[in-house]
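Aim 2, interim progress: modelling of the 2'-deoxyuridine-bound target.
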Amino acid sequence: MAQAKKEWLLIAQAALKKAYVPYSHFPVGACLITKQGKTYQGVNIENASFGLSNCAERTAIFKAISEGERDFAHLVVAGKTSQPISPCGACRQVMAEFFTPDMPVTLVGDKGVIKEMTVEQLLPYSFTGQDL
Ligand SMILES: O=c1ccn([C@H]2C[C@H](O)[C@@H](CO)O2)c(=O)[nH]1
Ligand SMILES: [Zn+2]
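Predicted structure of the complex, ligand included:
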């Protein structure tokens, strides 16, 4: 694996311990990489009103967007799952909003198994601004 990608993986996994998950005890970490190589970490942040919880992927995306970033190269998502973690539907839709269909998304669990997908593979035939 390329050195940069190893580092992104470590950044996503390091985020796991910052997740705020008092209800699910299911931490998720993310590392979003811009085309210029800057990284944004994200974690899931839960709420006593469960539906207000925010996933790690969207936390990383919203952090970057609110800092003015628009051009992204890669997203890495890490879970403590036996299989590579599977992003939820809401996050897939937000990915489709901000990422190109061919952008790579790396999914990892805690057994070292890595799944490489693209945004389009995660959400085929997505609804976007071009449909409006
Ligand atoms: O890809 C995923 C899947 C789930 N979660 C969060 C949402 C919730 O806090 C917890 C359990 O669903 O995991 C993420 O952050 N990312
Ligand atoms: Zn999600």
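The CA atoms of residues 46 and 53 lie 4 Å apart. The helical segments are 3-15, 56-66, 89-98, 119-122.
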